Amino acid sequence: MSLILGILDSGGAAASTSSYESIATATGTGSSGTITFSSIPATYKHLQIRMIGKITGTGFYRDDLYLRLNGDTGANYSRHQLQGDGTTASAGGAASATYIDCGRIVSSDSAISNVMFIAIIDIQNYDSTTINKTVRIFSGSDANLADSSFRIWLGSGAWLNTSAVNSITLRPASSESFTTTTSVALYGIKG
Amino acid sequence: MATTYEKIATTTLGSATANITFSSTAGTYTDLVLVLVPKYVSTTATKLTINSDTTTNYSATWLYGDGSTAGSFRLSNVSPVIINYFNNTSAQSSMNIVNFQNYSNTTTYKTFISQNNNAGAGTDAGVFLWRNTNAITSIKLEPGTGNYDTGTIATIYGILKA
Question: Are B78 and B53 in contact (CB under 8 A)?
């Protein structure tokens, strides 16, 4: 016996809720290495970023993806991550860092031309003005290649600042740009 | 602000069933989130097939922990792709949450990530690739062996963007 359910996109979806809302979206331009969501309203409890991404440049491993809050480029972040490269599980981290690491974004190398990096990034209680901000990262890429550049990544980051988050910036580690196939969506979750 | 996170379909099996398929016709949403709480008749894991593609266009990379050891594992050129690193026995409970990003775009291969929690065996996270630029129009879930048992729950949600 098999079971075939519904249609994914009938437009006749079941009951919806209003506690998870789209705030803004951004796409890569092919010539800029920065995506910033600014003037984020403090009307939600949590934020979630959902991304597919790629950067210019070649080489299977080109860059990590950096996240910064409120334009702060100081050494006010810390992070830990657990990652798997297909062969080995490893852990890493940094204190007094200048960014939160969101994993290894894929390049535009011709051998992986249709492969994308994806990420889900959660920022809990971003509107608080009494606690430092904690970020959760779940990201990865797979290219059907036996190469350690392609990884599954579980990360945590902290921004050691009690200000409410009003802007989020994503950028690759180097001067590469986000490709036009990059798409980033920011959502707000009510509490 | 638009409402963006919607349940599309769900089922709770009332009898043993070989597979569960979510099918679609067009791309209303941006992302899909699949939540599976399986109950198996025999010790196995869940296999996933997209758009009925049974060629070896799938690959996977896992990160896992079994209570004493953490590791990573990769499978290339497989079909279908197994979304759990750990097998479930029929007595074990588990949960899988699979995220399909930009599932309806027609310019890139489809990457999806999953977190799988099985307190009886281990926990794992996986990133998967379907090497096809077509929009995802159906997702088939099936046990590696045997059937899904009564009580298995599968739900799929759609997420819109601005």
Answer: no
Q: Count structural domains, chain B.
A: 1
A9 occurs within a structural domain: no
- Per the structure, the count of domains in chain A is 1
Compute and round to an integer the Cα radius of gyration of chain B: 15
Q: Residue A14: is its pLDDT beyond 50? A: no
Handedness of CA A52, A57, A59, A62 (dihedral sign): negative
Extract the tokens encoding A32: 């800029």
pTM of the model: 0.94
Q: Averaged in consecutive runs of 10 residues, what is the pLDDT profile of chain B (162 residues)?
A: 81 97 80 96 96 98 97 97 93 94 95 95 97 96 97 95 74
CA of B159 vs chain A CAs: smallest distance (Å): 9
Task: Report the C-alpha gap between B95 and B66 in whole angstroms.
Answer: 15
pLDDT confidence of residue A7:
46
CATH number at residue B47: 2.60.120
Q: Residue A48 is encoded by which pair of tokens?
A: 């979630």
- Sign (positive/negative) of CA torsion A95, A158, A102, B118? positive
A157, A79 Cβ separation under 8 angstroms: yes
**What is the widest separation between alpha-carbon atoms in chain B?**
46
Residues of A in contact with B109 (CB under 8 A): 114-116
**Chain A residues lying within 8 Å of B11, measured CB to CB:** 3, 5
**Domain range for residue A97?**
23-189
